[in-house]
Specification:
Homodimer. InterPro entries: DnaJ (IPR012724), DnaJ_C (IPR002939), DnaJ_domain (IPR001623), HSP40/DnaJ_pept-bd (IPR008971), HSP_DnaJ_Cys-rich_dom (IPR001305), HSP_DnaJ_Cys-rich_dom_sf (IPR036410), J_dom_sf (IPR036869). This is Chaperone protein DnaJ. Pfam families: DnaJ, DnaJ_C, DnaJ_CXXCXGXG. It is a single chain. Among the domains are: 123 residues, DnaJ domain (Helix Hairpins, Orthogonal Bundle), CATH 1.10.287; 106 residues, Urease metallochaperone UreE, N-terminal domain (HSP40/DNAj peptide-binding domain, Sandwich), CATH 2.60.260.20. Helix content is 27%, strand content 26%. The strands form seven sheets. The chain has a four-stranded mixed sheet. 25% of the residues are buried.
Length: 387
Amino acid sequence: MSSRDWIEKDFYAELGVPPDASADEIKKSYRKLARDLHPDANPGDTKAETRFKAVSEAYGVLSDASKRKQYDEARRLFGSGGFRGGGNFDGFGSGGFDFGDMFGNRGGSSGAESLGDLFGGLFGRRRGGGGTRAQRGADVETEISIDFTEAVRGATVPLRLSSPASCQTCGGSGAKVGTSPRTCPNCGGAGLVNRSQGAFAFSEPCRDCRGSGKLIDQPCPDCAGEGVTTQTRTLTVRIPAGVSNGQRIRLAGRGEPGRDNGPTGDLFVLVHVTPHPVFGRDGDNLTVTVPVTFPELTLGTTLTVPTLDGRVSLKVAPGTASGRTLRVRGKGIERRDGRVGDLLVTLRVSVPSKLDDAARAALEAYAEATADHDPRAEILRRAEDGR
């Protein structure tokens, strides 16, 4: 990307967020746009593919705190207007200043940030015309759905991903097979040219190579000289045991390829966990609600309750209240340090909707035998005392 691109492109507008948007707002907007514009969702739609690349490029800058700071500073300095006609900097007349000299390694800078370093970081160039600097590829984010058991135990799943990747035809050089890019003779590979006007000097992106520092005489037909194409690839992703819903897994070096032999970005996989029909989750503990009868709670019993691995026996003491939660240790989710959570069993009285004559008679006899016991007496007394 040339220096002109960095300043003239409005990455915030590309993602549909204001310049003061938070990192979470930027991420949320990118995810929605990426889903809507993804090549898999729009087969054969070149406009959607172009927009998908532009959105990914914008997110690659705004999701990186350091790049975003540099980008914001550059836009602030040039009034978000970028370069005006003839390559001059907006607001500095027909020539402009040599910012590298003005704020560079001179005494008396009062700690001001060197604009030469700022633009070196933005445009991927070394100060002093040392040629283009390798740029790290953008991070890529995708989503995957797994079932509850896979999340608890861990799983290895295939992931089909369409994203920018190094062109396999030219190996990322952008040049036709059998040829190579050549150093731009106008800027000597720096991507910037210096001009003097009166007492001042200024720099601007090289018009011949558009700030890239190199020329491609015969572009690769598959990537049109970009060195990058949208490719569909299948990855094997290892889901660690105990992953939770909404967690992101980072796969280092599996994102977009870097520029000029720069390092590849990372791939982040957002995990969605399908709820289980029986079990729930509370941190590293599994939860389950088990129906019981009134006699079981009153008289006490031993229950058989389910776990993810089978069944276990659970002793219920006489007089246990409905809604009580009992703990079965070591039957939960295994932590990364090797420790295992527990199974939390909540007991709920199951009330039958119908009774036969024998059951009804027995229940009526019980009610008569316990008529002197009013379970609501205590709560009524407390309510009256609190008036």
